């Protein structure tokens, strides 16, 4: 996966890391292309081999129902189809690229969940950001910026909620986390968006800007969504 350096997303990343009243927030908003690196190719080969072994084991099991369940009931689609396995590989590769000190190669497709709608994801993220300190970032501006680069209405969305042992911030007094992957197959791009709430007693040092430094336009006091967001979510969820 190739990381895209985008100036407007740099501003968003700065705004997503800050001190809230009861915790420290560390956020990521990164876009990658599906262009493979050398390490990606090794990862894909290892995952493909593992998936083929699992499919062989399940297909030869005494339970046809179990074999059918493994191949069909995946958030990425039937795992006997290469396109489904490829989407899973892209997400694992994105995690490895974003967190180079961690290895996510042992994750399973069942560790992820396919979100049923864009509006549900936006509601969850917006409520979290606004609850943490809405003066630092406008959620409308956040999604408008992201949409310019990945066209959210065309994306399949997956979520990942690891336990504290598997989370890359698990040793940083982790309190809560949310992680979403927006995959636009036509554009060959993956958006990785995550928020982590970390205890203030932890050792992590965030790189957010000073509180008096304006990064993004503050959210309006009434908190109402823009016409853009209303139209765009409606189109996505039809």
UniProtKB/TrEMBL annotation:
Key word Transmembrane present: no
Localization per Swiss-Prot or TrEMBL: Nucleus
Keyword terms of this UniProt record: Nucleus, Repressor, Transcription, Transcription regulation
Alphabetized GO MF terms: RNA polymerase III core binding
Recorded superkingdom: Eukaryota
Keyword field contains Plastid: no
Acidic residues: bias regions: 221-238
InterPro entries hit by this protein: Maf1, Maf1_sf
GO cellular component: nucleus
Region Disordered, annotated ranges: 215-238
GO biological-process terms attached to the record: negative regulation of transcription by RNA polymerase III
Pfam families named in the record: Maf1
Main function: Mediator of diverse signals that repress RNA polymerase III transcription. Inhibits the de novo assembly of TFIIIB onto DNA.
Family designation: Belongs to the MAF1 family.
Name the record gives this protein: Repressor of RNA polymerase III transcription MAF1
């Amino acid at each position: 996966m190739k990381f895209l350096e985008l100036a407007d997303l740099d501003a968003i990343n700065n705004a997503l890391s800050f001190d809230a009243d009861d915790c420290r927030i560390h956020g990521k908003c990164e876009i990658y292309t599906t262009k493979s690196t050398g390490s990606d190719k090794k990862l894909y080969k290892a995952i493909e081999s593992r998936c083929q072994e699992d499919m062989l084991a399940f297909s030869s099991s005494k339970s046809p129902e179990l074999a059918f369940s493994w191949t069909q009931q995946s958030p990425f689609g039937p795992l006997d189809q290469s396109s489904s396995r490829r989407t899973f590989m892209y997400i694992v590769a994105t995690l490895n690229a974003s967190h180079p000190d961690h290895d996510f190669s042992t994750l399973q497709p069942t560790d992820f969940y396919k979100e049923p709608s864009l509006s549900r994801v936006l509601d969850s993220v917006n409520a979290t950001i606004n609850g943490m300190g809405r003066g630092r970032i406008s959620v409308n501006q956040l999604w408008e910026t992201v949409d310019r680069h990945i066209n959210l209405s065309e994306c399949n969305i997956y979520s990942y909620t690891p336990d504290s042992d598997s989370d890359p911030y698990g040793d940083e007094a982790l309190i809560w986390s949310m992680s979403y992957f927006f995959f636009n197959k036509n554009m060959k791009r993956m958006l990785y968006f995550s928020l982590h709430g970390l205890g203030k007693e932890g050792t992590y040092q965030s790189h957010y800007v000073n509180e008096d430094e304006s990064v993004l336009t503050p959210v309006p006091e009434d908190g109402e969504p823009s016409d853009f967001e209303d139209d765009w979510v409606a189109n996505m969820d039809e």
